[in-house]
């Protein structure tokens, strides 16, 4: 973007921002609840994706070794054969 285009765009944004009028609007409880649910869902989804990729990174750096799940190990550290 050239310098002249940037100046023209900045001037247009400033003019349009100066011409705005008060909206006299509100967010009703239903819309506020939907916004809150979206934020909570986004955070939960982001944490799930971070957990997934963290596990992949740990597996990559540990040479692909994964610990056996606790239920697959019997007494005295021997693998269970009855499963």
Structural description of this entry:
59% of the residues lie in helices and 0% in strands. By secondary structure, the chain is mostly helical. The longest helix is centred in the middle third of the chain and has 33 residues.
Give a short synopsis of this structure:
The protein is mainly α and about 80 residues long. The chain has two helices and no strands.
Terminal residue distance: 66 Å
Number of strands: 0
Strand proportion, as a percent range, falls in under 5%
Q: What's the helix-strand series?
A: HH
- The backbone outline, from C-alpha atoms, is elongated
Number of helices: 2
Share in helix? 55-70%
Mean pLDDT: 81
Low-confidence stretches: none
Structural class, by secondary structure, is mainly alpha
Radius of gyration from the alpha-carbon trace, in angstroms: 28 Å
Mind sketching the topology for me?
Blueprint: H1 3-18, H2 29-61
Supply database-style keywords.
mainly alpha, elongated, single chain, 83 residues, 59% helix
């Amino acid at each position: 973007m050239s310098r002249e285009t940037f100046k023209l765009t900045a001037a247009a944004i400033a003019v349009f921002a100066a011409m705005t009028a008060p909206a006299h609007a509100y967010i009703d409880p239903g819309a506020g609840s939907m916004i809150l649910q979206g934020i909570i869902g986004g955070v939960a989804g982001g944490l799930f994706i971070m957990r997934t990729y963290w596990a992949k990174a740990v597996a990559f750096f540990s040479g692909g070794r994964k610990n056996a799940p606790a239920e697959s190990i019997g007494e005295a550290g021997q693998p269970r054969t009855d499963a």
